[in-house]
Amino acid sequence: MTEGARILVVDDEHYLADLAANALRRAGFQAEVAGTGGAALAVGLSRRPDLLVLDLRLAKGPGGSLADQLRRFGCSIPVLFLLGRDATQQDKITGLSVPGADYLGKPFSLGELVARCRAALRRSTGAGSPLLSCAGLRLDEDAHLVLRDETRVDLSPTEFRLLRHLLTHQNRVLTKQHILDHVWEYDYAGEDSVVPTYISYLRRKVDARREPMIHTIPRTGYVLRPPTPPAGPS
């Protein structure tokens, strides 16, 4: 189980770090924030987090050295490196050279951050890939595979993230703003009409010629729920 895991977010962009930590807390994790490598080392050694979310280019030194220091003190911990827009291929290689590490480019959606943290924690514990499902709809995160009634549904990366978020919160009505905050990049500044547009794309693929599962709740938002069973004989 990954829920309840301790995650330490290390980034000197304080707004981003707080945003990421709050998203992780809402997803059921215990998340703390540190703005420097020194503060992160102190927290890491005292509280032994299960995962480190670390900006590779901290203002006061390369992020990789912090993971190395924690390991030297006997704190074995997987790392999800955050890479800025100006990250080079060498930055990615540096991140992946750390055992148990992955990387996520900025800007990222908060939903993608949560999903990547879950995947990193599963890998560190040897747990299998989770299947999100609702009636005949199944989503395999690690295989990036979606099936509806055993038929493969091909989705774009954004459609996949949107469906994953709807499945994670199935039977719960999600507002347009909630979906925008969790599926799109945290600094997305475009029109919120992108949400109904992608809901429409997703319906065409997931609900095509089938009983609908993705519903619009007027003036409120969207919900994914199992198809309504046919009425029995009167």
UniProtKB/TrEMBL annotation:
Residues 129-226 form the OmpR/PhoB-type domain. InterPro entries: CheY-like_superfamily, OmpR/PhoB-type_DNA-bd, Sig_transdc_resp-reg_receiver, WalR-like, WH-like_DNA-bd_sf. One of its GO terms (biological process) is regulation of DNA-templated transcription. GO terms for cellular component: cytosol; protein-DNA complex. Residues 6-121 form the Response regulatory domain. The modification 4-aspartylphosphate is found at residue 55. Keywords: DNA-binding, Phosphoprotein. The keyword Phosphoprotein applies. SUPFAM superfamilies: CheY-like. It comes from the Bacteria. The keyword Phosphoprotein applies. Residues 129-226 bind DNA. It holds the Pfam family Trans_reg_C. GO terms for molecular function: phosphorelay response regulator activity; transcription cis-regulatory region binding. This is Two-component system OmpR family response regulator. It comes from Crossiella cryophila.
